TrEMBL record:
Coiled coil: none annotated. It is an enzyme of class 4 (lyase). This is Pseudouridine-5'-phosphate glycosidase. Substrate binds at K85, V105, S139, A140, D141. It comes from Parasedimentitalea maritima. One of its GO terms (molecular function) is hydrolase activity, acting on glycosyl bonds. Belongs to the pseudouridine-5'-phosphate glycosidase family. Binds 1 Mn(2+) ion per subunit.
Length: 304
């Protein structure tokens, strides 16, 4: 049996059948320094509460899966060093060895399914890395979306990725990619891109209905909701393109690969944008949390 511990807040929401939104924890351990990481995580949780749902930040602490973190646990995780970055391949191993790990998109989806949470808010999903035709570096997030019935609200795929190939892989695996409120696929830090929206929906009711109907039809997997960053918080794509290219070249020259690629690129982009990328990242995560909360509430209404 899997040892799952729910926070008091999440347990109360489960008992009362109210909306819950899952949150990943790598943004805490691998996304920014302490104490900013804890402050941002707490703010995102509060955004979910303010929108009428309950936040469930997910992590593995000393071999136990925690769904929802108490304030002291959030602080401890924010200070912790050498925390594992968990995906599908190493999630069970961390539990078995009594380890501590932060969940990526894939691992958070798995934990959400185990906890009967149907909606998850994150910044951006992983995907096909540039040069994948040589490296085969493709995030497990994509296959998880094809397998696990959770609606993931993100600002698209991270802009450091090969986004067209990422969309092709999602299409191949039958993952609905729903853009919220516009006809182009968002580019993470930028609201618009040259890529057309595979699907468009304009309200949380439609998104929740699509989630329920996929299950009624018997289709496996979840759906990706691409929620554009607010215009006032975005960084123009033409400004970011040469910065991303420079960071990718540096990573290639240093021989950085595997799970180390994304943290390296995000750190270099943070440095090259003088912190603007992190400010935008925080804004888009908060925006995604609010939309996810509305979808989770609509799911409760539909289920009842």
């Amino acid at each position: 049996m899997i040892n799952i511990k729910y926070s008091a807040e999440v347990q109360d929401a489960r008992s009362n059948n109210t909306a819950i939104v899952a949150l990943e924890s790598t943004i805490i351990t691998h996304g920014m320094p302490y104490p900013q990481n804890v402050e941002v995580a707490a703010q995102v949780e509060q955004d979910i509460r303010d929108t009428g749902a309950t936040p469930a930040t997910i992590a593995v602490l000393d071999g136990c899966l925690h769904v929802g973190l108490e304030a002291d646990q959030l602080q401890s995780l924010g200070r912790a060093k050498n925390v594992a970055k968990l995906s599908r391949a190493d999630f069970a191993a961390c539990l078995a060895t009594g380890g501590t790990g932060a969940t990526t998109v894939a691992a958070t989806m798995i934990a959400a399914k185990l906890s009967e949470i149907e909606v998850f808010a994150t910044g951006g999903i992983g995907g096909v890395h540039k040069g994948a035709e040589q490296t085969f570096d493709i995030s497990a997030d994509l296959l998880e979306l094809a397998a696990t019935p959770v609606t993931v609200v993100a600002a698209g795929a991270k802009a450091i990725l090969d986004v067209p190939k990422t969309l092709e892989v999602l299409e191949t695996h039958g993952v609905p990619v729903i853009v919220y409120g516009q006809d182009s696929f968002p580019a993470f830090w930028s609201a618009q891109s040259d890529l057309a929206a595979p699907l468009r929906m304009d309200n949380a009711v439609q998104i929740a209905s699509a989630h329920v109907l996929r299950q009624a039809i018997g289709l496996p997997g979840g759906q990706l909701v691409a929620n554009p960053i607010p215009d006032t918080d975005q960084i123009a794509a033409e400004i970011l393109a040469p910065i991303i290219a420079q960071a990718q070249t540096e990573a290639d020259n240093k021989g950085i690969s595997g799970k180390s690629v994304t943290p390296f690129l995000l750190q270099r982009i943070f440095e090259l944008t003088e912190g603007k990328s992190l400010t935008a990242n925080i804004a888009l995560v908060r925006n995604n949390a609010r939309l996810a909360s509305n979808v989770a509430k609509e799911l409760i209404t539909l289920r009842s």
